[in-house]
Specification:
single chain, 78 residues, alpha+beta, 3-stranded antiparallel beta sheet, two-stranded antiparallel sheet, 2 helices, 5 strands, globular
Length: 78
């Protein structure tokens, strides 16, 4: 077995990135999710049967764009 000789960039994200359908499975399991491009204090959850985003110290209904649906940079918050 040949090992990868490429160095890992110092700024590489350690979170496991996933597409939107996989992120929704995590939300249904009670996890908080976010996109890598979002500020670190913003996240989405399932709340009162709606997909909600916590932003600016308030809850909002998360309205998804086509970019959100096609994105593969969704991560589970730790």
């Amino acid at each position: 077995m040949v090992k990868n000789q490429s160095p890992t960039p110092k700024n590489a994200k350690k979170e496991m990135q996933m597409p939107f359908p996989d992120a929704m499975k995590q939300v249904m399991g009670g996890k908080k999710i976010q996109r890598l491009e979002w500020p670190k204090d913003e996240y989405g959850v399932l709340r009162e049967s709606f997909l909600m985003i916590y932003r600016n110290d308030k809850w909002h209904t998360l309205i998804l764009s086509e970019g959100d649906l096609l994105a593969i940079d969704w991560v589970v918050m730790k």
